[in-house]
Predict the structure.
Amino acid sequence: MTPAASDRSFRPDIQGMRALAVLAVVANHAGLPFATGGFVGVDVFFVISGYLITAQLVREHGATGRVRFAAFYGRRARRILPASFAVLAATVVAAMLCVAPALRPQVLSDAIATALYVPNLAFAAQQTDYLANTTPSVLQHYWSLGVEEQFYLVWPALLVAVLALAGWIVRRTGRRMPAPAPAVRLTVLVVMSVLLLASVIACVVQTSTDQPLAFFSPWTRAWEFGAGALAALAVREGADLVRPPSRLRETCTAVLAWAGLAVIVGCCVLYTATTVFPGIAVVAPVLGAVAMIAGGRGAPRFGPNRMLALPPVLFVGAISYSLYLVHWPVLDLVQASVGYEHPLALWATTGLAVASVPVAWLLYRFVEEPSRRSRRSVAVRPRRTLIAALGSSALLVGACVLALTVTSATPLASDRIAASVAPSAPPVETAYVPANLTPDLQHATDDDPALYSDSCELDSKASAPHPCRFGSGEQTIALFGDSHAAQWFPALRRVAAGAGYSLVTQTKSGCPAAAVEVDYKGAPYASCDAWRASVIAQLQADPPDVIVLADYVDPVFEHAGDEASQWEHGMRSTIDALAPHAKVVVLADTPDMGTSPVACLSAHLTSADACARRASTVLDSATRDAQKRTAAALGVPMIDLNDYLCGTSCPAIIGDTLVYRDSHHLTATFAAELAGPLGRRLAPLL
């Protein structure tokens, strides 16, 4: 992503690698079908950065015996921050015009994190699923710059410390070691390898337990930079530890470079949004990049160097940093302006991706290059450069804080009042955002069931059941499933209380009662399988009178392909285990609107009907059909209240009540209003 570390270390093949990496990322973000794994281009950038920065630092340390940290950080600030801040400022201004009002505060919060060099940590804290986000941040691509900046902050000091340690070890064991320079290099390689192995292990382990943190954390990504650093240490410019005969060396390195290129291209084509990433999957593109760097230096005639050094490729490589910065706002701002509920066609995203190239050239020509190369910029003392960088950050943060104050006062409702209506089939749609909307758009995402605040809705880490009991009736209803079961709690609690029953909940986010293997935020959900098995065992040992099963029927399956059969098999397994012990009833899944209606409504205060979705679209999936088919085949009653949510279309507002708190969860307020219809359909089983 970032420019070359030094012109003296310029290698055309690495410039070509930059072009390959950025084109992969842009193609992936544009949705091109042959680049489903193009996100690995960022990992290629990380390796390149680690290689170039380490080579530069080692050269300086070898020539002078020290590293001038102020000069190093000054150079990095000149090369990275002017273009970064220019795009950041322009994007925020454009977002205030294009993004729905409900999303603007989040844009500004993300901008503040970006200006403070920690956007990746902010996205990790938000549990952002980078590969499956339906309403991504317009600044989401800055996460990788955050990781790089954090790497630059730590790596020079760590490298100098390890070099000093290596020198001390060599001096203490001088006679038993080879010549000092190779000895120091060997010692540094060993120490760095140990540190980076710890990062690799952390990456793999963290991906299985907290994928968003593994994706955005500088610690779990550090080894990718380190892999490039090890390449720089192992193969110095102009001197190898081992030199085989020239022709053989060129042949071997050519094969290595071509193999690395093949691996990277293969990852771009074969990886998808369902690939568990980073985890073990990130090893392939990283090693591919290392192979290209190591092989490219020694095989200019037989390797891919000539292809990578073609003028068009070098041009894209030169503007790769600027292209990375501008392409995502170009794509996402246009998508935001038309609404995330209306995904852009492939021809449109392709056109936008192509259009971002001249925009990137303008940024490169008039911002990036002058800040790097002009005499005036180069002549500025490093301390002044760093002070200017901090001042720019402070200015951007202040502007965003002020904008947050303004946006928080933006009205998110019309001036009309809507009457309350009783649930009906079909529902009574309200075609505007009423001033008395409950919950209002500002607080919609927080209108979840009390199970969450009571710690009864288990998170992704929990594997042991945690049943919660509500009421004192002798007879019991058990609610079992994922968050789509939890969303029915307000209604079912009223039904249970009215019938003199107690209600026991067994719910866990993202974990269906149906025995299917699913992913959670990009990683296999091992704790789900353990939790489900334990809950079933508890229900068998101490059976309630009625068990209500409710699930989100369109999760990300761990094994792609024939999801309907997987769902049918998993549902049969659970019902067969429970039906001999208690009455089992299935609640049909509610609509999946695709994106949260909240953002759409905030942009259509007087035309809320624009945010409704066709029932045939949001209620159409193979797994929904499998749910109905399996319940009928097993003779299990199925309660479908979707006729209270949808007619020919599914509105976002019914009466004065907001129906959805996100893309596929009901608000607790609206769910409670369905207690009457749910109670009438459940009554024959009580």
